[in-house]
Amino acid sequence: MKNEIDRQKMILENLKEGIILDLGSQDMPGNRKESLHEFLVRNWKEKVIGVDAQEGKYVDIIADLDKKFPFKDNYAENIIAGELIEHLLNPHQFLKECYRVIKPGGKLILTTPNATGLQIITGKESPHHYFVLSKKNLHFLAMKSGFKKID
Question: Is the Cβ–Cβ distance between 65 and 88 less than 8 Å?
Answer without folding.
Answer: yes
